[in-house]
Amino acid sequence: MTSFATLDDPSRAARLVLVGAGAMGANWASLILSTAGAELVGAVDIVPGAAARLLAGLSRNTAMAAESLADLVGAGIAFDAIVNVTVPAAHHAVTTDALFRGKAVLSEKPLAPTVAQAISLAAAAAVTGRLLMVSQSRRYFRGLTSFKRTVKALGPVGLLTNDFFKAPHFGGFRETMAQPLLVDMGIHPFDAARFILDDEPVSVYCESFNPSWSWYAGDAAATAFFTFSRGTRFRYTGSWCSPGDETSWNGAWRASSGQASVLWDGANPPVSTHADIVPLDPAEPEEIAAALAEFIRALRTGAEPSGIADRNLVSLAMVEAAVLSAQRGAAVRIADVLADARNAALGAESRAEVRAHLLAQQAGVG
Ligand SMILES: NC(=O)c1ccc[n+]([C@@H]2O[C@H](COP(=O)([O-])OP(=O)(O)OC[C@H]3O[C@@H](n4cnc5c(N)ncnc54)[C@H](O)[C@@H]3O)[C@@H](O)[C@H]2O)c1
Fold it and tell me: Record keywords: Oxidoreductase included (predicted)?
């Protein structure tokens, strides 16, 4: 159980600063403004005017706009935490800055673009004693919880599959990434597989490619085949340039056990001809609202949230292992990816106290 600083007065609202006023930042700002127990006190974006424009479009807003966290602090704005909704490449710098200012961080996925950077961030959270949580928003769906509970009651799962076929034209950073599907989207089903199975992956074999009609520069399609520690195989097949008959954003799930198969299309309640479906809980919050609720609860009570950075590292390692496997044309072990990332994190770390923590972890005392 990781401990971290909590609110001085758990009955007051958590004062939050949104960092990153892009497409997803707008969703977060509206959510924070409509959440009891949260107060939006600032918005930051490095693009001049972007934070101000986002705030101007919101009703009931009293937050201040700025181009950096330092400007906001300089203006005397007091806050407890940031919500990091910047592009993935900025996550490490933005999160580290906030942690070392003594602020908690709720980060959009991915925690960082590499496992090494994510390990550095988890260590920075430990050193500063601040909460660092990832909003892995696709873990929070009533249908997914029902699917997981139904599957769990059936005993061991032999094969778990997820099929994801969409055709979004995002523009922006995804269209120039080398592995847009695996890196920006794969993290969701990979993390959900760990959640469904309550088990950890051991290895992966993956092939990725870019269909001839793709509007992405990098590989927009992939199949990844994971082996989990208790023997379950998890097969993910996805494409981000697949117009027509698209799946839901959660993809279509299927779990096959010795007694029954359970199917969840990612949008409607799960179905099965041979298993009793655990009903959906209508009171269960979903997506980023659920992540924010968990974050605020953690700041108030000190209860460890499911998205705490340490626990998210293996989901990120699944992504990195799949990308490596696609590059090498061979299976990759998750433990090897984590070990290499720990070494890379140590090699790249510029903060002495974080480096000391990483060294202590490697020596088995951290
Ligand atoms: N959970 C989900 O379903 C979901 C959906 C979409 C996006 N996301 C995640 O949200 C994040 C943002 O995605 P987006 O689609 O909003 O991207 P975006 O490009 O629309 O917005 C990102 C914003 O961050 C700003 N920014 C970049 N570097 C910054 C820095 N150092 N300091 C302050 N601002 C900075 C940019 O100027 C931009 O306005 C990504 O991590 C993405 O993976 C999650």
Answer: yes
